[in-house]
Structure formats: C-alpha cells, structure tokens
Amino acid sequence: MIRINLLRLSFPSSPSNFFAFSSQIPVLPLINRSRSRLMAKCAYTTAFEPPGKKLLFRQLFEKESSTYTYLLADVTHPDKPALLIDPVDKTVERDLSLVRELGLKLIYAMNTHVHADHVTGSGIIKTQVPDVKSIISKASNSKADILIEAGDKIYFGDLFLEARATPGHTLGCVTYVTGDGLDQPRPRMAFTGDALLIRGCGRTDFQGGSSSQLYKSVHSQIFTLPKDTLIYPAHDYKGFTVSTVGEEVLYNSRLTKDEETFESIMENLNLPYPKMIDMALPVNLTCGLQELTAKPVEAASN
Ligand SMILES: [Fe+2]
Predict the structure, then answer these.
(1) Does residue 245 have a pLDDT over 50?
(2) For the chain, is the Cβ count within 10 Å smaller at the N or the C terminus?
C-alpha cells in the first residue's frame, strides 16, 4: 500500500482559513448590499473552491472520444503542484500549454482505469515533462510509476485525492475523491472514470468487467458519499459536465434499479465491439509509453 508520506509533497497547513472566514459572518453589518456581496462570495467559494481558494480546477474535453480530462492544483502552495486525471494523447499539447500558462508544476498524470476507447496521454506527458509520475491502480495490471490501492492518498501540496476501488467496468477501476477535511475542497469532488457516468455507467462486457461488481462498487463507494459530492465522469455523450451523488441516486437510469434489473440491463445493451480497443489497450497497459517516438503526439494518434 502506498503510504501517505510517500506521496506527500508538503506538510498540511495548519487549520484552514475556513474558521477565519466563517467568523466574519456574524459581525458584518446587516446592510443589504454587504450581505449580497457576502452571499455571492460564499456561493462562489463553496461551489468551486475550498477555504483559502487552494484548489484550481479545470474540466477539459477531447471531442473524438468524448473524454474529460481534469486538471487540479494547489495554487496556494509555493510550487503550485498539479495533476491531470485521464489525459488523452491527442490533447496533451493543449493540456501542457494550459499548465504552463497557469504557472503550475505538473507532478502526476493519473488514470482512473485502462481505457479502451482512446490512448492515454500519460506516456507523452512523461517524455515532455520528465519529472511527472504516472499513476494507475495496482489492480489494473498495468505499468506505471506509482501503483495505488484502495485507501491511498495522493497529495498535491496540501490537498489530496483518496483512491476508492470501484471495479466492474474494468477490474482495476478506481474513483478519486477529494479529501475529507476542513482544509479540503467543499463540496467534495469524485472523479468516477467510467464506473459512474451522468445518468449512466460504463459497459461491463470487456476487460474483466462485471455488472454485479459495478453495482456493488457504485452503491458502496460512490453513493455513500455526501449527497452534494460533485460527480465528474471520464466521458459524457450528451453534453452534461457535472452531476452530484444526490442527483444520480435519484435519476441514474441504470443504477437506481435493483441489482437484478441492473444486471439484466447491462447484459442486453448489445453494444458494438469497441473500435479502438485492440490498438488502445496494449499502449494503455504501459500508461501510454509503448508507442512513443520522436514525434510522440502524432505517433500515438495513429
Ligand atoms: Fe473505459
């Protein structure tokens, strides 16, 4: 198991600014304009940034595979350490350009699972930013710099992601959840890969998939998170960008059913053979390093 201190870049900050911020509320004069300003600040802060505005967050999109890549950074840490979740080979240049423009230090390229529909950008990123470490689950039977297990915490500055095992779409799927603590982002954010999509879920007929396992994973590891936890999936095909645990518990068209009905739905999807799987899987089992050449972006896109 990866221990906290192995992944940790710095010591946690002392008690968050949350208390300092909260303590201002009762003493503010009850003037409508001031209250409006305060409420606006509260809404902005609680929706997207933790106390102290530590977290920088960007949701990025790759249109051919409808994949979301997520950039997270602790911008209050002197190094501004950052990580990318589920980068895609075709959009690595865009992602690294953004990292540079924002003055971040990319330290991790992470995958939620071994993707079958696109080539991960992790390998290309490692050739262009040599200090970056690739991360994937040990259960994926994939190669990476760091192999994580359930419960591991991945620190970037004073912030961290917790790994939760959510197999079922593939054997090695994990969900990365932002930390639980007063100095961590509120509401929490769950990067669910293909285990839980907005109003749907990933298929379970390849890569060691199991509908029974997926049902248990989502209900025990994701639906048990606070209802306001933001759900950020690896894909969306309808234009949705974010959901919440509360919404999916109520409206997910598959996972709101009982387990038997869910398994029947998954067994009768009659989906075509994934068109990229034969090319993408071997490359992704080495976190994208296998196909690299002098021009990695073009080579890996073929
Ligand atoms: Fe997938």
Answers:
(1) yes
(2) C
